[in-house]
Design goal:
mainly alpha, 71% helix, 304 residues, two-stranded antiparallel sheet, 2 strands, disordered N terminus, homodimer, 1% strand, Farnesyl Diphosphate Synthase
């Protein structure tokens, strides 16, 4: 059980994530349009949602993967921020009344509540645009790498293989019973695709070889599933305070979740088993993978 | 008055636009996700809006500019389609109830009326993603050109210098009196930016030199303004049948338009004067510019 014997001390991934967050926030601050520049309302809405206290898990994963394969953090930062912009755009649009109708996220009013629907739609639209623009303009990377990253990110964000497809299938599934298989397909698209893109983009910037890219893709696919299972479990078990959003909302919306389909105990068991798969995928990588193991451990044991 | 003596016969730009439309539609058909592939509702919505009978003016301008500077049509087609996807995404989102609340476009129900708001939001989101993906994956262009095109398109689509900024300022202006200067700023961002990007992208693919790129940018900036003035005039003077949407809507929404601010006669005069500027910008280009003159003529005299 190498995944357990080599597990890092709990403080290690937390320290890494915390350092990532500081650097990512500073880079986002630099990349995003200023609030005092018109259109002020949209720029304020963009910053309201981007700087809402997110954990920066996806960009941190990009930094961790890039670092594992030898890329310097400063070279990875713009792409990591682009990924976080795509993630934030999807949250803003998913929260809209015609979608998931969420009024609270990370303990604060969602974008369309704090501003208005039109502004929230435009803020999300602009964030997607700025994400691709950030990579296209990133002079720290070769044009070859930039088009690879844009292609990865677009595939993970769009349809039929990405986030938009997952959100569409999720909305469609709300009105009927969903099988465990359909549930995993929804989450593969809605959540795992962007997590996989994060890991692959880090590896691509660091010019990892084909075998390494395959291994990191498997790692991230398991990690994405683990992330979703623990997310669903937290919706059942956490308090509103620790979660920053209304818990129990999935159940009330009769959303397809792991605890709803399998029960809480079996969902917890599934999380531990997926965590083992996640770490096992790293065994073929002949690089120091403590950071990536630490992130998997962090996701398994997270409280928010 | 070289712009008048060298004006093409009216049939020439029409034939070119018609041929462009056929080739662009075939390429869009190839690039967009299939309706029978899940999520079917979103894919149907994408195709509903993309194949709604648009004139393909922006992608045709990209083809015309590229052709003027010597690029083959087949090399220009994917970027031209990416541009049309960005345009269509903006129409879908602008039509939403919280934005311009339009139920009819090109004589058919708008996307959120035909489907639903969530589907329309996702269809627009996905179209933006596929646009950037199309350019990033375009193996007919070097990676250097691809990142240039993505950067151009993103700047024209986003904020503070593009379409999202224009739409935000337009919404903000609805509740108050707007000066002629503010009106031109809104249209520069909301309409002209993407028209300028179309012309510049064609020139970039064809590797036009710096002076040519400057001239074509000036041409397209005037053309964008001309397009908006004739668009506003058509809203006042055209019938619902020729327009494919409800005319007079701008006036009822108390939108800032050229006829509203200057009156119909003065707006028509302004259109003719801007048309002269548009053609004058071509005089420094030592290439056959009949096609680009023809397009300006077409925009000045269009009936829909």
């Amino acid at each position: 059980m190498s995944s357990e014997t080599s597990a890092p001390r709990p403080s290690q991934p937390l320290a890494f994530l915390s350092e990532c967050r500081t650097r990512i926030d500073a880079e986002l601050e630099r990349l995003l349009p200023q609030e005092n520049e018109p259109p002020r309302r949209v720029h304020s809405a963009i910053r309201w949602s981007v700087f809402a206290g997110g954990k920066r898990f996806r960009p941190a994963l990009l930094l961790a993967t890039g670092k594992t394969f030898g890329a310097p953090t400063e070279v990875l930062l713009p792409s990591a921020c682009a990924l976080e912009m795509v993630h934030t755009y999807s949250l803003i649009h998913d929260d809209l009344p015609s979608m998931d109708n969420d009024e609270l996220r990370r303990g604060r009013p969602t974008c369309h509540i704090q501003f208005d629907q039109a502004t929230a739609i435009l803020a999300g639209d602009a964030l997607q645009t700025i994400a691709f623009q950030t990579i296209a303009n990133d002079s720290g990377l070769t044009p070859e790498i930039r088009v690879l990253l844009i292609s990865e990110l677009a595939s993970a964000a769009g349809t039929p293989k990405g986030m938009v497809a997952g959100q569409a299938l999720d909305l469609e599934a709300e009105s009927r019973a969903v099988s465990g298989e359909e549930l995993e397909q929804i989450h593969r698209l809605k959540t795992a695709a962007l997590i996989i893109a994060a890991a692959r983009c880090g590896a691509l910037v660091a010019r990892a070889n084909e075998a390494e890219l395959r291994a990191i893709t498997t790692y991230a696919a398991h990690l994405g599933l683990l992330f979703q299972i623990t997310d669903d479990l937290l919706d059942v078990t956490a308090t509103a305070e620790s979660l920053g959003k209304t818990p129990g909302k999935d159940a009330r919306a009769r959303k397809a979740t792991y605890p709803a389909i399998y029960g809480i105990a079996a969902a917890g068991e599934r999380a531990r088993s997926v965590h083992t798969d996640t770490c096992a995928a790293l065994e073929s990588i002949f690089r120091p993978t403590e950071l990536l193991r630490g992130i998997a451990e962090f996701i398994l044991t997270r409280q928010s």
